Write the structure tokens for this entry.
Amino acid sequence: MKKATLHINEQKRLDLLKSFKTDDRRRKDLEELTELACKLTNVPNSFISIVDVNTVWFKSQNGIELNDTPRELSFCAHAINHDKGFYSINDTLEHPDFENHPYVIDEKPIRSYAGVPLKDKNNLPLGTICVLDYKPHQFTKDDQQALELIADLVMRHLTLYKVNEELKESQERLKENNELLKEFARTVSHDMKMPLANMVLTTDLVAKKYGDTIDQSGKDYLKYIKDAAFGLSDYVTQILSHYESDSYMIEEKEVFDIYTLLEHIQEMLALPDEVNFILPEDNMELNINKSALEQILINLIGNAQKYNDKEKIKISISAGESLDSYKISVRDNGMGIPEDKKEEIFKMFSTLNISDRLGKKGNGIGLNTVLKLVEKLNGSIDVKSELGKGTEFIVTLSK
């Protein structure tokens, strides 16, 4: 008996095998291919084999129940070394390499075998698709073509499985990194907000206690410090909201009405008297993730008030539904958005370099958070705007 030699590029082949993350478990999705191999070649037994360091084990089989075999005894270990790809033995009793082979002199001897290596794009074999019989078999060109076709299909299956596993690992790493980022954001939020609150309190105390001895320039400096502290606190809050938006379980829906939600948002934002806040003509019941929609509307309504240059601010909400979606719009009479900036405003940290009605500049986080939440809700957002006359954001969300 002649033992199969190692592949000429054995270490590279084993590295490739490792990258495919294969194991000794059967793959039900490959059973149809081993069955097909038997039907096309008219041979009763078929295997999809993986040739490992010392063992050949089978991902799928048809006709024989066998989990693995020692590599030194495996016909497949010979097949992966065959230069021409298709490796066949019409009658093992007449083949000198298999004289006194345990599987050939067995009580139920293997008399014929044919296999095609499962190769990657660099011509490195993982194993084979093979057929075998307990009687001699004259393998034909049609048999060869059939096995080559199936070998290609098997490699497509194994490659797809490899890609899917890599994607799962990548997603898991991204999930872990995202959790670290969210935890970092929470920590930063907590660690920064207290000092910022102290800055605001200190400037108020200094202004109150030493106000009579501080000139106008000094009072202006104190105001700048206070405004900067408020601005940085708002920035930290929006960063935290952006990362927390990833944690919303969008599939967790609840039933609520639009009036109750909008009235709650109006209270949260503490909209001043000069804001004419107009609710939709008719109330509407929704069944959707309430937290996500609330965060969307808080951003849109808050921006409609902040970025408004009119003495009398008007914010109008409309709501409607179709068989498969809800549509909610937030329209204001503010300064408007240039036509060429409508897409840019949704990019992270992108601003129009303009100040709000209190002279503060945005940080470009809020609308990016809105877009992310809308997309998580399987929806879309459109913008209609005219400079000097106002802006309307139309949000469409799947039911």
Notes: The longest helix spans residues 141-210.
